[in-house]
Amino acid sequence: MDQYKGSDVDKYRSFMSGEGEKNTTWKYSAPPNYDAVNKLFEEGRTKIWPTGSLGEQVQNLVKTWEMEMFNKVNPQDYKSVDVTKLTISVNGRKPLKLEDVAKIGGGYNMFLQTSLPEDLRLYNPSDETVDTAQKIFTTTFTRGFVLEVLEVYSGPPVIAYKFRHWGYMEGPFKGLQPTGEIVEMIGVSTFELDEQFKIVKIQFFYDRGEFLAALIKGGSAVTTTQDSTIGVGSSRCPFS
Fold first, then answer.
1. Where are the alpha helices (DSSP H) in 151-238?
2. For 222, what's the count of Cα atoms within 13 Å in the CB-facing half-sphere?
């Protein structure tokens, strides 16, 4: 897994620069800048993996995959996955191929799938597109929603690990007041890799309801409209 040592523009994420990316189409015309996200990560992480350890490599792999998924327009530009084989499932739901993820409105909607009746949904993936979902969460988590790997239970070819995502609710969520409090999400995941250490299968398990419940604690709608929210720099995506 030596390819997951970071890059010259980001010490945690690979495949962001160099000859291999000269023809990459980026969502915002250039590679994302993760300086603010990395600062939040380094200030709030609870575990520092030794350099070169399996834990560090797994953490970098996950960050690299998330960076590519949310920032590279063409799946053919992904270097961390085999796009012809990759499937992703969340909380035991039906595995999705990349084209399926695109059909349901992108990564945010994939992570927040639900079978709840529509009138009970705090966040309804059916109502959101790739762009509106991006705007919602980058407005809520203005400094990002960062990731650390807490434990690694097995190494490749099937990696099983425990993760923590966190950020501060410093902006409104769908019109609800920000709390300024930390919002955390703990879960487990498996990544199955091929012989080239490219991902071919992903599973995530976490409590969607617990995550969303933390976003409505402030209550009371704010007057700000979605159109006046903070810019949607892709480095701030909630799963990066």
1. 208-213
2. 19
Rounded CA separation 104/133 (Å): 11
Length of the chain measured in residues: 240
Q: What's the order of all strands across the beta sheet hosting 87-90?
A: 87-90, 199-206, 182-193, 158-168, 146-154
Report the C-alpha gap between 199 and 85 in whole angstroms. Answer: 9
Bridge partner list, 166: 146, 184
* Tens-digit pLDDT string for the chain (240 aa): 999 999 999 999 999 999 999 999 999 999 999 999 999 999 999 999 999 999 999 999 999 999 999 999 999 999 999 999 999 999 999 999 999 999 999 999 999 999 999 999 999 999 999 999 999 999 999 999 999 999 999 999 999 999 999 999 999 999 999 999 999 999 999 999 999 999 999 999 999 999 999 999 887 765 544 433 333 333 445 444
- Supply angle C-alpha 209, 163, 47, rounded to 5: 135
Q: Environment class of residue 28 by beta-carbon count within 10 Å: exposed (0-12), middle (13-18) or buried (19+)?
A: middle
Q: Where are the beta strands (DSSP E) in the chain?
A: 87-90, 146-154, 158-168, 182-193, 199-206
- CB 48 within 8 Å of CB 149: no
| Residue 22 · residue 30 · CB < 8 Å | no
Identify the bridge partners of residue 167 per DSSP, sorted by sequence position: 183
How many other C-beta atoms lie within 10 A of the C-beta of residue 52? Answer: 10
**Rounded to 5 degrees, what are φ and ψ at 111?**
-70, -25
Global pTM reads 0.89
Distance from C-alpha of 71 to C-alpha of 31, rounded to nearest angstrom: 8
